Each structure stands twice: as structure tokens, then as C-alpha cells.
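Posting here for the record, re: adenosine monophosphate.
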Amino acid sequence: MTIRDILQGKGSDVYTTTPQTTLEKVVEVMVERNCGSLVVVDRPDSLTLVGIITERDILRNRAARTTALDKVLVGDAMSMAVVTASLGDEVPKLMGLMTKNRFRHMPVVEDGKLVGIISIGDVVKSQHDALTMENHYLKNYIQS
Ligand code: AMP
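Prediction output follows.
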């Protein structure tokens, strides 16, 4: 199974933000969209990725207790060295990267443009669906 297969099921919507947005706004959007990360693009409506900001970054910022969330900009709290996936990547490769790097989100990029995002929840669902299907066929095989 590839990233393309997962995106065909869940769609290619990606919630984005920009480096100039405040963390307070990011929290609002994450709660409204029920998601744990926003991909950071260079300007609104752009598909050019410049970073990623997740719940973990906001927690880290809060633990430092320096400035209020409405005074901190995404550009100062995001991760800039983003590890991305391609549509043709196999799911086990993605699982390996997420485990090794200890993150739960991978933007998908093709020809330099953002085309989707995969979370660890999407990976678990894809593995569960594949196992359920395999189980079904094996049971049918044994019973026939
Ligand atoms: P997460 O587990 O996805 O909430 O992310 C944990 C940390 O890794 C945060 O500092 C994120 O900004 C960072 N991070 C998440 N996804 C990626 C990614 N694909 N590439 C680089 N850093 C990431």
C-alpha cells in the first residue's frame, strides 16, 4: 500500500497557516478543524511548504512560559526541516520515518507542491483495514 492509496481514501485537504500567524490563531484553527498540526506555507493559498507546527510545538512554547500565545508567531515556533513523503512511498517506509523521528505528521509533496498530509492515525487505519481484509479472505479460504 502506498501514500497515494491512503490519500485516495481520505482526500487531499491540508489545513495550512503562515509564518506571520500567531499561535493563538493556530490553537483556534486546530480546535475548529479537530486536527493536531498545520502545515506552514509561505503565504495564504500557497502550496509551497516552509514548515510544520503541531500541538507539541505549542506545548513546548507554553512550558517555556515566556510570551503569551497571541504574541508568538508561527515562524518562531515551527519546525523548518520538514520530512516529507511522496505519493509513491510505501506505508512501511513512512512508519519507519515516523518512528525514528518521533513525529506523527508527514506532509506529502509532489513537484515541490503540497498535495496532502498523513497522520499516524491514517497509518494505523490503513494497517487495520488491510489486516481486516486479509483476515476475511483467510477465513473464507479456510472454510471453503
Ligand atoms: P508531532 O508528533 O507530529 O506532533 O511532532 C513532534 C515534533 O516534530 C514537533 O516539533 C513538530 O513540529 C515536528 N514535526 C512533526 N512532523 C514533522 C515532519 N514531517 N518533519 C519535521 N518535523 C516534524
